[in-house]
Amino acid sequence: MWQLLNQPYPCEDPVRRRWAKAFWIGFFVGLFLLIFQPFGLNSWVTPYKTVKILGFGLISFLVTAGLSLLLPVFLPKLFTNERWTVGREILWITAHITLIGLVNYFYINALIANPIYAIELFGMIVVTFVIGIFPSAGSVLVNYILKLKKYQQAAREIPVREHHAEIPGAESVQPVLITLTAENEKDIVSFPPADLLYIESSDNYSTVVYLKNNQPVKTLLRSSLSRLETQLTGNAFLVRCHRSYIINLEKVEKVTGNAQGYKLHLHDGDFQIPVARKYNDTLVAQLKSMA
Fold it and tell me: Which positions, given as ranges, span the membrane (predicted)?
């Protein structure tokens, strides 16, 4: 079980998907309470009862949307695929549920005129937790299994070029070099296009990883990834595969998949580069055309 909780799980959802998740969570909570009216709601006599019960769903939607949209903005390094796991996703949902229970506690106390009948805080959180945790945890596990099977199966069907060791002195023609320049216009790095492995973005810097004497070398440049990308024009096999990575498709030796998506393996598996979902179709098509 612990091993399952440590498995990678997709984290970097588009904004519209976060809104959709919040909507369905709120919809489920509101509809569940309206239909079954558990925990004494069926005996609750109050004007506009249906609207008030649906208010619990609206609160669930607003809390979920607020957490999902704001926290990744303020804590971007925490909400990345590199750190996100099945266990963290379940804990994240548990945090949503706990906060929803807390806000719903104040909501129902505002509705009930006589505070003697107000539901205790702990009980409100437990009620919300019981309603939401099982379908939430179940959906995480089901989604993990479905995505894992999808990307593992698809990765096995993606062909890659065979790579052969270069024979020293086999090429007498001096290749045209790529020159990448930092923002200060002074720090530069030059190498043949075929020697580039990948470029990784990190805040205001980019790490350029290329081969020198068939060994990986890393050079740090103060430059955005988008700025360096404009300096790679004319090399169709050097492509963006993620918001933080540019990769040399000619160096891809194997493609694997997990619940987060595809992983591109370079240099005998020393480097594994993620592929963002938005690049899946174009990147797979390019790999197939190159095989």
Answer: 22-41, 53-78, 90-109, 121-146
Question: Does any domain span residue 220?
Answer: yes
> Which long-range contacts link 141-145 to residues 24+ away (Cβ below 8 Å)?
141/4, 141/86, 143/259, 144/7, 144/9, 144/86, 144/259
Contact between residue 184 and residue 226 where contact means Cβ atoms under 8 Å apart: no
Residue 98 lies in a domain: yes
264 φ/ψ angles, rounded to the nearest 5 degrees: -100, 125
Rg (CA), the chain: 26
* Average pLDDT per block of 10 residues along the chain, 291 residues long: 87 82 89 84 86 92 90 85 88 84 82 59 70 79 93 91 58 74 92 94 92 93 94 89 94 94 93 93 90 72
**pLDDT recorded at residue 116:** 44
Q: Which helix (H) or strand (E) holds 63?
A: helix 49-74
Both 205 and 135 in one domain: the answer is no
> Which own/partner contact pairs does 122-126 have at CB distance under 8 Å and 24+ positions apart?
125/98, 125/101, 126/101
| Cα torsion angle, 72, 85, 81, 11, sign | negative
E strand segments, 156-195: 178-181, 188-191
Q: Which of 68, 15, 6 is nearest to 278 (CA)?
A: 15
Same domain, 90 and 196: no
User: Residue 163 domain-assigned?
Assistant: no
Burial letters for 206-243: b for 16+ Cβ neighbours within 10 Å, e otherwise? bebbbbeeeeeeebebebebeebbeebeebebbbbbbe
CA distance 216 to 211: 5
